[in-house]
Structure formats: structure tokens, C-alpha cells
Specification:
The chain is mostly helical and 488 residues long. It contains 16 helices and five strands. It has three domains: 76 residues, no CATH class; 187 residues, no CATH class; 192 residues, no CATH class. Helix content is 62%, strand content 5%. Keywords: Heme biosynthesis, Iron, Membrane, Metal-binding, Oxidoreductase, Transmembrane, Transmembrane helix.
């Protein structure tokens, strides 16, 4: 058999799609490797053995590209996968998170993306619950949940419990039972939606573990995320409980602790980011890389993206302090805060340096102004103004940073996907600032407030996707890349 015939045989094997019939697999598995002397090229034997495998397994994911030059076949090897003796899947030197082939990888990826989308909806529903002031309507909590009120007597019982809360006495006194039903259903839906997420995550997780699709590394990561999700319910009740306590001053409105609200939101963001990143890693073990030049460009982008991502996350968390203190109602003007750019009493704390540490969203200390009890409203207004100022400054810095990222990378030779993601991130940052200003000027309506919270998570999603896309490829893939990408 000549070299041309063997090359055609290898090509037909490598390009065949679908699963092989048992008889065909046995034929190729039992076929002896031809001696090098017959073909005059020892590489042909290596190729043949690599395709059939030592144990006769045929790997359909392999791809062999052919070209002609001076009448000879030029063979290149890409994306060959081998199965380790331990049962862990590797693809061209990259350790895969899912075993069982491409179908298992696809199913697990869909499940993880669906779980991340569910967490996204949980964050949005939580925002609606807060904006409609429904979060304190349920005055008790059970880990497993309970049935909602089903009779008039049950509703009256729940309403009586709510009447004992500080919120009813100071804010909603005179509320009808019909109005109470609305805020109760909002909080009940938020809690049960979270419990449903737990089932939706745990059941497929158990199934995939039993099927052997989940590797040890992925299993540990998902177990940690599941534990964090279970703890999220406890954090939520810890937050709500702070709003059921009598405020220190008779002039203050009952509300949940802004620090506990920030902890609750940060935990939700962490779960979402973990799920989304893991889902991307399952379906895209290698970043898009078609040339060494594009890989180098991605490395330059990565150095810029990391600090911008951190700033986006801090800005999002600072929004929890704005929400927790109702700071969106303090100064409903833009760009000035009232009649000034910076309120006069923002830097009242002595020494001056304390203002830069105790009034940021990352350092959780209470303000200690020397006010009388009768000046509690003034004290609250100052606190709200400072929190709003923090958020405005961080949001402005975020927009400038994302804009600088786009500007500094616009002429880099990078993968089109990376360039498109940077443009989308810049557009989303602009939209998010626009939503924030509109929400402020409109006195925080539920619709715009919810859209603004969704926008924050969307911007964070784009940053995660961008970070995942500019990862460094594996060394084996890097070695197989051409210096410059091929253009059509």
C-alpha cells in the first residue's frame, strides 16, 4: 500500500462523524499497525496507532488537517484527546471538568448555565421585594419552608404577627389585609424561589455524580457553591431579623441592616459568579485562540481587565449600602447633590482621614457624629448623602475605567470575540450609568430600580465572560498555533 492510499485511509477515519458500529470499531482495533519499512515513513505508523488507540478506542473528536505541497500530504495534529488510566478526561493537555464525552459536557454545561440564570432571577426578585418594602412581612423563618396561608383565619393570624413588628407600627399603620397579602406573597415567592433553586441544583448534581460525569475537582467546587447557597437562606434571615428589631431612636424608620444586606447581596453575587465561571469552563476548556499574536494581545487585555473587574464588583456592592440606607432618596439631583457638588457635612468626622476609611462601602463602621436624639433625621440624612456620594464616585470611576479599557485596546491585534466583548462591556457600563441617573431623578421607582440592579449583574456577567475569554491557553495548544491568524 502506497503513502497516498494510507493518507486517504487516515483521512477517512479522522473525518468520519457520529458513533462507529461495533463491527467497524473491531476492524480498526484489530488491524495491525503497518511496519515503517512498507511506507518509508515512521510517522504514518504513529498516526495510525494514535487514531485507533492502544486499546482499540477510536476518538471521534480528533481532527487531522491535510494540505498538499509538492505532491505530498502535510499532516498537522490538533485537538487529539487521550483518556488517562485514572478515567480523567484530558484534551490536548487540558484537564476537563466533565467526563463522559461531548454529550455529557453539553448537558452539564446547560444545567450550570440554567442554575446561574436562576440565581440571576433570584437577585432581581430580591430587588423587587426590597423596593416594594415586602421583605419584613414574614416575621418568622423555617429552613424547609412552610405552606402559605390558605384560609381567612390563617391570613388573619399572619397579619396579627406582622402588626407586632416595628415596620407596621411606624410605617404601615392602618394597612389593610389586602395590602398585607401583596407584600407577604412577594416575600414568600422570594423565599420559595430560593428553595426551588436548591432542589433544581441538588437533583441533577446527584444524577451526574452517579453517572460519573463530575470529576473530583468539579465536584468539590460545586459542593462549595451548594453549601454557600444553603447558607444564603440563613444570611437572608439574619438580614431580615435586623429589620424586625426596634430602632434605637423613636424617629428612625425600621429597616434591615445595610451591612447585612450587603453581605446577602455579596453572597448571591459570589454564587452567581462561581456558577457562571464554572459553566464557561465546562463548555469552553480552552479560550478562543487562533494565533500567537492574538494570544499575546489577550495577555495585554487581561492585565487591564482584572482591576476593572474588581472596581465593577465593588461598585455593585456599594449599591447595597445605598439601598440599605434608602440613600437614593437623599439627593435626587444630578450631577450636583442638592445645590452643591459635595454636601458640606460629608467631611465632618475628625480627623479628616477617617472619612476616607469609615465612609466607604468596603469598611463597615457606623458614623459617630455628636447629635442629640432629636437630630436623628439629620444624622440619617448625612449618612445617606455619604453613601450616595460613595456610589456616585465609584460608578463614575467604573465608567471611566471601562471606557479607558476600550480606548487602550481598540488598536490591539486581538481575537474578534475579545474585541466584541470589550465593546459590549463599554456599552453596558454606559447604559448602567444612565439607568442609575434615571432611577435617582425619578425617586427610585420599582421598575427603574429593578432594571438598575439587573444592569449591575449584567455588567458583572460581561466582565466574567471577558476574563474567561482572555485566559492563557494550554501549552500544547499554544505550540500548535500559527504566528498569525489565517484570514479568509
Amino acid at each position: 500500500m502506497g503513502r497516498l492510499a494510507v493518507a486517504k485511509l487516515i483521512h477517512s477515519i479522522a473525518t468520519r462523524r457520529g458513533s462507529w458500529a461495533a463491527s467497524q470499531s473491531r476492524i480498526y482495533a484489530s488491524a495491525p499497525a503497518p511496519p515503517p519499512a512498507v511506507f518509508g515513513d515512521k510517522n504514518i505508523r504513529v498516526i495510525f496507532q494514535g487514531i485507533t488507540g492502544k486499546n482499540g478506542t477510536f476518538h471521534t473528536e480528533q481532527a487531522i488537517e491535510y494540505g498538499t505541497k509538492m505532491g505530498h500530504y502535510v499532516r498537522s495534529f490538533r485537538n487529539f484527546s487521550t483518556v488517562a488510566s485514572t478515567g480523567t478526561d484530558y484534551k490536548e493537555g487540558v484537564k476537563l471538568l466533565v467526563t463522559g464525552g461531548s454529550n455529557a459536557q453539553k448537558v452539564v454545561g446547560i444545567w450550570l448555565f440554567g442554575s446561574a440564570a436562576w440565581v440571576f432571577s433570584m437577585v432581581i426578585l430580591g430587588g423587587v421585594t426590597r423596593l416594594t418594602r415586602s421583605g419584613l412581612s414574614m416575621t418568622d423563618w423555617k429552613f424547609t419552608g412552610s405552606l402559605p396561608p390558605l384560609s381567612d383565619e390563617d391570613w388573619c393570624h399572619e397579619f396579627e404577627k406582622y402588626k407586632q413588628s416595628p415596620e407596621f407600627k411606624r410605617v404601615n399603620k392602618g394597612m389593610s389585609i389586602e395590602d398585607f397579602k401583596f407584600i407577604y406573597w412577594m416575600e414568600y415567592a422570594h423565599r420559595m424561589w430560593g428553595r426551588a433553586l436548591g432542589l433544581m441544583f441538588a437533583l441533577p448534581f446527584s444524577y451526574f455524580l452517579r453517572k460519573g460525569y463530575i470529576t473530583v475537582g468539579l465536584g468539590l467546587r460545586l459542593s462549595a457553591l451548594f453549601a454557600l447557597g444553603a447558607g444564603q437562606g440563613l444570611i437572608g434571615w439574619w438580614m431580615v431579623k435586623s429589620g424586625l428589631e426596634e430602632p434605637a431612636s423613636e424617629y428612625a424608620q425600621p429597616r434591615v441592616s445595610p451591612y447585612r444586606l450587603a453581605a446577602h447581596l455579596t453572597s448571591a453575587f459570589a454564587i452567581y459568579c462561581g456558577l457562571f465561571w464554572t459553566a464557561l469552563s465546562v463548555v469552553m476548556p480552552e479560550p478562543p485562540a487562533e494565533s500567537v499574536v492574538w494570544v499575546r494581545g489577550a495577555a495585554k487585555v487581561k492585565r487591564l481587565v482584572l482591576p476593572v473587574s474588581l472596581l465593577v464588583a465593588i461598585t455593585a456592592i456599594s449599591g447595597a449600602f445605598v439601598a440599605g440606607n434608602d440613600a437614593g432618596h437623599a439627593y435626587n439631583t444630578f450631577p450636583k447633590m442638592g445645590d452643591t457638588w459635595i454636601p458640606e457635612d460629608v467631611f465632618d468626622m475628625k480627623p479628616l482621614i477617617r472619612n476616607f476609611f469609615e465612609n466607604t462601602s468596603t469598611v463597615q463602621f457606623l458614623i459617630s457624629f455628636e447629635f442629640d436624639e432629636t437630630d436623628s433625621e439629620t444624622k440619617s440624612h448625612v449618612w445617606k448623602g455619604e453613601k450616595q456620594l460613595d456610589h456616585r464616585i465609584l460608578a463614575t470611576l467604573t465608567l471611566i475605567s471601562v471606557g479607558a479599557l476600550w480606548w487602550s485596546t481598540r488598536k490591539l491585534d486581538i481575537h474578534p470575540v475579545v474585541k466584541s466583548l470589550i465593546g459590549s462591556t463599554a456599552g453596558m457600563a454606559s447604559l448602567q450609568v444612565t439607568l442609575g441617573i434615571s432611577t435617582l431623578l425619578s425617586y427610585v421607582p420599582v421598575s427603574l430600580g429593578t432594571a438598575h440592579q439587573a444592569g449591575a449583574l449584567t455588567l458583572l456577567t460581561l466582565m466574567i465572560l471577558l476574563n474567561h475569554t482572555v485566559r492563557r491557553p494550554s501549552m500544547s495548544l499554544l505550540k500548535s498555533l500559527p504566528q498569525v491568524a489565517k484570514t479568509l
